[in-house]
Amino acid sequence: MSERVGARGLLRHVLDADAWTSWDTAPIEVAAPGSAYAAELATARRRSGCDEAVITGEGLLRGRRVAFVVSEFGFLAGSIGLATAERVVAAIERATAERLPLLAAPSSGGTRMQEGTAAFVQMARITAAVMAHRAAGLPYLVYLRHPTTGGVFASWGSLGHVTAAEPGALIGFLGPRVYEGLCGEPFPSGVQVAENLAAKGLVDAVVGIDDLTDIAADTLDVLCARTPTGPAQAAPSAVPTFPPPAVAIAGASAWDSIQRSRRPDRPGVRELLRYGATSVTPLSGTGQGEAEPGLLLALARFGSMPCVLVGQDRRSQRTGHPLGPAGLRVARRGMRLAAELHLPLVTVVDTPGAVLSAEAEEGGLAGEIARCLADLMTLAAPTLCLLLGEGTGGAALALLPADRVLAARHAWLSPLPPEGASVIVHRTPDRAAEMAGSQGVRSEDLLRDGIADALVDERPDAADEPEAFCLRAAAAVEAALSALPAPDPARRDRFGRSGL
Predict the structure, then answer these.
(1) Cα–Cα distances in angstroms (integers) from residue 364 to residues 142, 253, 278, 370, 372, in the given order
(2) In 3D, which of 178, 23, 99 has the Cα closest to residue 342?
(3) C-beta of residue 446 within 8 angstroms of C-beta of residue 452
(4) Are strands 148-149 and 171-172 parallel, antiparallel or unpaired?
(5) What DSSP assignment string belongs to 86-127?
(6) Nearest Cα to Cα of residue 456 among 479, 488, 432
(7) Which pTM was predicted?
(8) How far apart are alpha carbons 345 and 137 in whole angstroms?
(9) How far apart are CA 431 and CA 423, in angstroms?
(10) Contact in structure between 155 and 127 (CB atoms under 8 Å)
């Protein structure tokens, strides 16, 4: 369990030294003079050193100006009353007006019971302010601290573009003391814990306070890199080009590429990020209780170009985590982030195919593929696809339609694995190589047919030069991102005209 600190202690840890300014004014009066509640408020002010349950203001985080709303749990358990809500909403609205990214660090038991329903409904008002901030294309980062429960977790604590949590923190909708009092038994252990929420895809990461500055700085390095008006427009013809391969492999068979793409040591999306990207912030799951190891979602920069990245993880898929409906819902979260934050979306296709199971069918696999396609084809953000290796079936197609498509030299795209195509046509998987050769699956075929725009060379095989290949691919991604045109559904519709 990490060190527990109050609101000012958190600010000292996270923001640049002596570089924050309070936005707080005197709280409105909510308690009748001489009442028991007025005495409670006076005691809370004396004990906590704060005049309300939140501190708001602005500061510098690695030199970047940011706004913040930080709970002080020592003030009546960080509860939200009318005065607290006034302060929170005022800070969010000011951050929006001044176009600042907003850092929220709640630690609260929820609604202030002394103020009842009038305080309870303030959660809706705070939520409206947060959503207006997000609608302005401004980043909203949340750090859930111990404990965060009730209406705070069910409103502004669950609306972050990126959400981290304190190690070991109690986080949940229903406070365990309330549950035990109402139900007569303890709430099941291990459920309302930060680490479990991360495993379930409800928060993106569990981060100690000493690492919070680095994580927040990397995240903002991506999210603040583009203005809300979107990326600079480039001419539609600005497509990156690549030098001819160092080793002549023209005429290599489709089956040769397929075998190379299946090598267990072939670099995938994780190696691409490790060697070729900076400011990488992995995100976890859908944010709605689903996680998918086979699909990686991250914020990253390729050179000077920021992006939201959605990538199929080859190793996870081949070691027990084939891509299913939840993975596609994670991908759609990435699409929404890109559109809302005015960032380009990079998809990385590298999949042996979606999971084949009754659970996937009942979980809506086909529908999720369709919705991914629909979202990607109409996304209000520039899009780039990198076909990195295997491109099998609907799982590959779901992330393919983009404004630009790059393909690794030995990447390929097919409606089924060639063995499956052989079974359909020849009643045996033994003619897979023949089927692959006849279907136009190679990267050279994709380039010829207008499905791919450019190839990333392998010299002669990405598995034999993983770092060099990933650096080459990353440079290609950066070049393509810098030349992306405005989002154009008609451009993405070329796939249908090419006969895909």
Answers:
(1) 31, 36, 35, 10, 12
(2) 99
(3) yes
(4) parallel
(5) HHHHHHHHHHHHTT--EEEE--B-SB-GGGHHHHHTHHHHHH
(6) 479
(7) 0.89
(8) 15
(9) 8
(10) yes
Question: pLDDT digit string (tens) for 227-274?
Answer: 444 443 433 333 444 443 333 345 579 999 999 999 999 999 999 999
* Closest by CA position to 303, among listed 225, 362, 366: 225
Rounded-to-integer distance, Cα 407 and Cα 465, Å: 17
Predicted local confidence at residue 493, as pLDDT: 66
Residue pair 341/101 in contact by the 8 Å Cβ criterion: no
- Angle, CA of 248, 277 and 203, to the nearest 5°: 135
**For residue 403, what are the contacts with CB-CB under 8 A and spacing of at least 6?**
382, 383, 384, 484, 485, 487, 488, 491, 492
Radius of gyration from C-alpha coordinates of the chain: 25
Q: Residue 247 and residue 460: Cα distance in Å, rounded?
A: 6
Quick one: tokens of 421? Answer: 């195509």
At residue 297, the 3 state secondary structure works out as strand
> CA triplet 333, 340, 489: central angle to 5 degrees?
85
DSSP 58: E
Q: Is the N-terminal amide bond of 460 cis, ω within 30° of 0?
A: yes
Q: Give the residue among 269, 270, 317 at the shortest CA–CA distance from 292.
A: 317
Please name the residue ranges forming H helices in 98-208.
116-120, 122-135, 150-153, 176-183, 194-199
Beta bridge partners of 385: 347, 405
Single-letter residue type at 186 = P
pLDDT tens digit sequence for 382-435: 999 999 999 999 999 999 999 999 999 999 999 989 888 889 999 999 998 999
Give the separation between CA 300 and CA 278, rounded to whole angstroms.
Answer: 6
* C-alpha distance from residue 474 to each of 58, 260, 305 (Å): 35, 20, 10
- How many CA atoms does the CB half-sphere of 175 hold within 13 Å? 17
Query: Tens digit of pLDDT for each residue in 326-356?
Result: 999 999 999 999 999 999 999 999 999 988 7
